Amino acid sequence: MKNTVLISFLALLVCGSIYAQKTPFTVSDAINIKSLGSQTLSDDGRYLAGIIADTRARFGTDHFRFRDPSYLNVRAGELVIYDTKEGTKMNVFDEKVRVNNLTWWPGNDRLIFFEQKNDKMVLAYYDISDKKVRYVKIKDDRVIAANFGINYSAMGDKLVIGMRKKGWMDKAMADYKEATEGPIVVYDGSKDFLKWDKIGLNSSMVEVVMLDPTNGKVTNVLEEGPYGGLRVSENGRYLSYNEAFRTKTSYTRRDGAEYQASFIDLSTLDSATIIYKRNEKRRNFWWDASGMNYAYVDSGNVYVNNIGNYNAEAKNLTKDLAFEDDEKKKAVKFSMMRWHSGGNTLLLSSKKGWWTINADGSDLKLIFELPEDKEEKEALPNRNVVKWSKDGNYLYVSYSDKEKWNRGIQRYNIGSGEFEDLMTDSSFYTSWRFAKNSDKVTYNFSDGDHPNEVYLNNLEFESPKRLTNLNDWVMNKKWTKSELITYRNVDGKELKGILYYPVDYDPNKKYPLVVEVYERFFNNGYRSSMNLIANQGYFGLRPSVDLEQGYPGEAWMKGVTSAVNKLVEEGKVDNDKVGIHGTSYGGYATSLIITQTDRFAAAINISGKVNIISFLGDSPKIGTRNYAAAEVGQDRIGGQFWDEPLKYFQTTAVLYADRIKTPHLLLTGEGDWNVPGTNTREMYYAMRRLGKDVTWVNYMNGGHGAGWASDENDYHDQWNRMFEFYKKYFFPEDKEEKDKDVETDQKH
Q: Are strands 428-434 and 494-500 parallel, antiparallel or unpaired?
């Protein structure tokens, strides 16, 4: 087990504390935390590009223009390149810019990207050799599709991008304005699409073109269509792609679309060749590194084919090969995991375990066998293959224990059938990026509490090298410490939760507790909300709940209260000073749980619904999402309202507002297109009518997240309101003393 990274990180924190007295972590500090997003590693591993941004990048979004075809909102940040060999950083621009789709030119010396200039995207590249940004003057009147990627074709050093068809904007804006400005808007139920579904479909339509960046010349490749999954073959000759044709508005997420897959020869631009004819059944394709061979799964068997020999029938690699026994054969249903980089071998999975097979269908092997016992299988650590070694002997897998914080990366020796720990400990590792043509790998690292930094290593994971220094100033701030806790819900099921200790913790004292709810929590990592709560002198808790299809409302009551009880029994928490809040689905949970118990001193719903019945049609800009969420998705009702009305009633908090005894703060954003504030408002009117303690704050520039999804002033305002709200009900004696002092002053 290697702890070099953790030790060096903690040593840095300790050294920092020698030179400065630690001060509280504030709301302003939370805004200033930086991260490196959109990371992309060059093929040789020499350069890592990314965008450094803090919380300010989220501010200023015009939420009211969601789905407006003319509105671009690429978040601003510092475009940087790290030289992994020299350990230096290059700033591509002197100021923050709005860029996306960072892509390395195969020579590893140019970074290509789109940059937002006013209301359009332009194509640019940064040349590392002369450290200059150059803009490509495209000789075409069409505009670049902002939500489409950049692909490179080695055939003539061309780029494949998406552009909007002439007249696209006029047509798209006409539909949008008709729905938003009227003056009369007709919603016709006989049409195939809801109006806002049709508007949303506009963004998927692009024309695919090939661009010569040296002269800006554009060559048309594909006429307008709903394209995705574009991949250019390694030799630059073939472009493969998928199409998803929406046919009608869907309420079930399982219909209303047809799928097709094709490829086109970029050297001739003749008619495309269809490899999967338009069909209601979606089919996924896995391409090898060359972009010439592809695999797919049908009825539990894996098939392969080759673009260069497409006229031949796809080969079924796995039929009747797993076992000799007929019954065992039928029991094995394969899934595709990945191709080896050489294109000669595939990695498959089934309920039995992991398998390898040659691309010609020979030598099927079960290389890692899973236990047959369900409980044994569920107890295994989470493992996900992130790389297959070039020699084919090893699988690199991200690793996470299910019972404790032991995480990192392992290597599986296919020959010996053994896992080797390369770098596993209690730290938190994410975003593994392996260089295509070298042994370099980059990843995000956190000690579990502090913000991520980016590290470089080799495939032996023996030489960690820190690349970024994004938040060194936090070493002088008071910080929470997290701990994984275990408890049982009311049904006796064992669950996990993350406990965050108050700063300056004294084990001889009892503290208030603030619970942040959603669904399940296991991994820690930096969490601004919990660090702010800890700096108020409170425990923070993110508990898991066991959500059951058809009865979601009971889960929070069964799980959250059990976790709180355990902490109270341990003497850590003051039973009379427990608060609860959540955002979105967590806000919904907060309002629902306080209709079932009065054990919380204060409760805050942030952008969460309170009426699941009216919510079904409350978010028009996202079509039928709310129906699907209730019937087959996150809300877990499991049926239509007309079939299961009682379950909808049982999970609609506002219907039980008369039972609420907990002071309730409701926070919404006027521009929230996800959970409109009008839904949450129902709880304010109900509780006020019933004479309950309720306050509703609606941020007029806010979106989903209320003040946190608004501007910097509102971000501060929301946190300060929450702090004051908890303080008011955790320490009512302070308010009484203050009121007495005011009364005394007035008498004198």
A: unpaired
